[in-house]
Write a structure and sequence with these properties.
Pathway: Glycolipid biosynthesis; KDO(2)-lipid A biosynthesis. Keywords: Fatty acid biosynthesis, Fatty acid metabolism, Lipid biosynthesis, Lipid metabolism, Phosphopantetheine, Phosphoprotein. GO terms for molecular function: acyl binding; acyl carrier activity. This protein is mainly α. The chain has three helices and no strands. The protein has one domain: Orthogonal Bundle (Non-ribosomal Peptide Synthetase Peptidyl Carrier Protein, Chain A), CATH 1.10.1200. Helix 1 packs antiparallel against helix 2 and helix 1 crosses helix 3. It starts with a helix and ends with a helix.
Length: 86
């Protein structure tokens, strides 16, 4: 399973949607994921990939991690996974 597919599966689970309903253009808001759901998604992604996401739930605007869309989240996770492997 690719990084993209795993991230989409985790986000879909949080949103109580089918992975097919989650598009790369979707925002978390579009999917009905609130701030608590976002934090749970981040934890699930960190566990799935054994990475640490530079995201502060208390100051999301100050974060180095782009959560503006599913595509941005996938790109950020791919970058972190690649950094970990090198």
């Amino acid at each position: 399973m690719s990084v993209k597919d795993r991230v989409i599966a985790i986000i879909a689970e949080q949103a109580v949607l089918e992975p097919a309903d989650v598009t790369m253009d979707s925002t978390l808001e579009d999917l009905g994921i609130d701030s608590l759901g976002l934090v749970e998604s981040i934890f699930s992604i960190e566990e799935a990939f054994d990475i640490t996401i530079p995201f502060n739930a208390n100051e999301p605007d100050q974060s180095d991690f782009d959560i503006s869309s599913v595509a941005a989240i996938v790109a950020g996770i791919e970058r972190l996974v690649n950094e970990k492997q090198s």
